[in-house]
User: Which sequence fits this backbone?
């Protein structure tokens, strides 16, 4: 009993406890993915057409992605303050939307709802930034799995909140918006003082491997469970008692990873940690600041003087050759034979500020690739409710939950896959991004070709591909541009999604949808005009039916995903030597 206070203190400061709490925050931090379920409610209550709904979708995407304020504040404010700002924005923004939809407030102009949805969804960026920055610093040697799992739970939050809403079974559909405003706020307030960087975060323990394996197992079980529930609801139909029971089991599964820090602190003996850095340089750590500066200057000269063949050598031989060249440069500099020029900024793999990263071609190649591929995926997510309705499906919530589940699997699987290829083969992590972009291109093309079960195939492959981007890209950015300004770098990259959505959803998808809706309405008008005068601008006349509504859009986005793949492969080519140095194997 005397050790209990010590154990409790160790439990609260355990990085796995912080990680599990961050998973819980992320499980309600992706309310933007519920827009496919919320948008039909707003469209019906406010009498909006598809273009107006698309404008709301762009406002949502902007709020979900403009996180550079959160990234900048993260460097000067404590993590709990970042989370509190997110709570205020989430509650105020979606609370105002609920007051309007529930007729508590009079109808407000479209721009006011756009601002409210922007503010409410922007709260997510504070949740994401706080969780990712804390956990990436706590687990610098496991960036891929950590980012993949955290972003995976954010992607799964749409399915989780949908099931919780079904468990509540409130007859008013506007209650879903109320739950989005209140539920995440309560959870984040409860956990905001726990999520933070903790001491000893550079220490690697033997238990990490089994702990991540257990977490992956829970993720797979959770996804399979949610998928099974969806199949039951779609094919069999279940009563409210069973729905409530399934919802309780879902909450238990989400809470279950807490067993990891409990076992690590209270049950298992603490093995001594192994000190390990991503780029081990003990002599540099022991050197004085002036010696470090001199070494960095000489290393800059080494980069200029070494031949391309050096990078293709085995790790031990490469280090030996670089050390020899470095020694020669030190001697030549001391004798005045060469003039060592000052280092002109960090190299890839070192710590960049956001401004330094913005002048690098690799950063912009990743950004544009993300615009094309992630923008295409987000267009499908935002328009999924209308896509399902155009194909004759009345229950769109099933497909919204399905794409959230596969979004989750894509993020978890993307983190694991990208970590495997760099650990075993030292391939650059963007290789994984190119692979998932091909998968997305196939899924979108399948819809355009009107293959059998097109909505299921497109939902699964788009969810997987889109989700994988958000495990691969943040980890890649942290490796190429460092952890010092990771929050700002990550949140700038997230601007790619609203940029893509603005082009693909509002300008292309909605324009094509409204074109075919008006065309179908004009064909129906002469037939019904002799009996009932139906105006062309009626809400029914602006509803498109059939796969033609989105086929052309999907075909265009499929081609753009191929372009994104080419850009990713260019990044792979440019960074292959960097990853060889980071992970100690020669590039192939």
Assistant:
């Amino acid at each position: 009993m005397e050790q209990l206070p010590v154990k409790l203190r160790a439990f609260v400061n355990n990085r796995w406890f912080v990680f599990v709490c961050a998973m819980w925050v992320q499980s309600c931090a992706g309310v933007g993915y519920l827009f496919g379920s919320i948008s039909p409610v707003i469209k019906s209550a406010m009498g909006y057409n598809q273009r107006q709904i698309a404008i709301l979708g762009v406002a949502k995407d902007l709020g979900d992605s403009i996180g550079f304020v959160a990234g900048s504040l993260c460097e000067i404010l404590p993590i709990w303050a970042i989370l509190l700002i997110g709570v205020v924005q989430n509650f105020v923004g979606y609370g105002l939307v609920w007051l309007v939809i529930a007729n508590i407030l009079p109808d407000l102009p479209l721009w006011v709802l756009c601002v409210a949805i922007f503010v409410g969804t922007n709260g997510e960026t504070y949740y994401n930034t706080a969780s990712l920055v804390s956990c990436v610093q706590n687990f610098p040697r496991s960036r891929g799995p950590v980012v993949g799992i955290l972003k995976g739970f954010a992607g799964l939050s749409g399915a989780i909140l949908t099931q919780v809403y079904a468990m509540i079974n409130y007859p008013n559909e506007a209650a879903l918006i109320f739950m989005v405003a209140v539920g995440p706020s309560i959870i984040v307030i409860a956990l905001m003082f726990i999520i933070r960087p903790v001491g000893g975060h550079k220490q690697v323990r033997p238990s990490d491997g089994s702990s991540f394996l257990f977490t992956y197992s829970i993720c797979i079980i959770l996804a399979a469970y949610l998928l099974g529930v969806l199949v039951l609801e779609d094919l069999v139909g279940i009563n409210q008692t069973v729905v409530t029971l399934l919802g309780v089991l879902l909450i238990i599964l989400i809470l279950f990873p807490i067993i990891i820090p409990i076992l690590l602190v209270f049950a298992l003996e603490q093995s001594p940690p192994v000190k390990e850095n991503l780029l081990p340089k003990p002599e540099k750590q022991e050197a004085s600041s002036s010696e470090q500066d001199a070494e960095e200057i000489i290393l800059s000269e080494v980069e200029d003087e070494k031949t391309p063949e050096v990078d293709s050598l085995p790790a031990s031989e490469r280090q030996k050759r670089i050390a020899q060249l470095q020694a020669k440069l030190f001697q030549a500099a001391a004798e005045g034979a060469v003039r060592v020029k000052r280092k002109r900024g960090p190299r890839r793999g070192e710590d960049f500020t956001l401004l330094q990263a913005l002048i690098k071609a690799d950063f912009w190649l990743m950004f544009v690739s993300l615009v094309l591929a992630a923008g295409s995926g987000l267009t499908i997510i935002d328009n999924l409710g209308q896509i399902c309705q155009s194909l004759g499906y009345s229950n769109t919530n099933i497909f919204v939950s399905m794409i959230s589940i596969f979004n989750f699997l894509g993020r978890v699987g993307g983190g694991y896959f990208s970590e495997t290829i760099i650990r075993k083969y030292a391939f650059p992590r963007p290789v994984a991004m190119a692979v998932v972009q091909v998968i997305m291109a196939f899924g979108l093309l399948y819809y355009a070709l009107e293959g059998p079960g097109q909505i299921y195939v497109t939902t699964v492959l788009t969810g997987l591909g889109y989700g994988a981007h958000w495990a691969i890209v943040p980890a890649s950015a942290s490796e190429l541009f460092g952890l010092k300004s990771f929050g700002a770098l990550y949140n700038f990259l997230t601007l790619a999604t609203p940029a893509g959505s603005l082009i693909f959803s509002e300008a292309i998808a909605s324009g094509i949808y409204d074109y075919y809706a008006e065309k179908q309405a004009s064909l129906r008008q002469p037939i019904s005009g002799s009996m009932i005068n139906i105006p062309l601008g009626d809400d029914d006349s602006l509803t498109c039916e059939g796969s033609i509504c989105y086929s052309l859009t999907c075909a265009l986005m499929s081609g753009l995903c191929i372009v994104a793949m080419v850009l990713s492969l260019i990044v792979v080519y440019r960074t292959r030597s960097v990853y060889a140095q980071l992970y100690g194997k020669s590039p192939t």
